What we know:
The chain has 42 residues and is mostly helical. The chain has two helices and no strands.
Amino acid sequence: MTDAYIIDAGWDQKANAVTLDRFSGPGITAVNLAAAIIIERV
Length: 42
């Protein structure tokens, strides 16, 4: 996403992001990483 979209959406520019590819092992790793970040902040 570009900074303009982030600003227009009202999101914090320091928000974390993960790119997911459902056909790859790293995609599964990305989901696990994102879940861990979410759980850590709850």
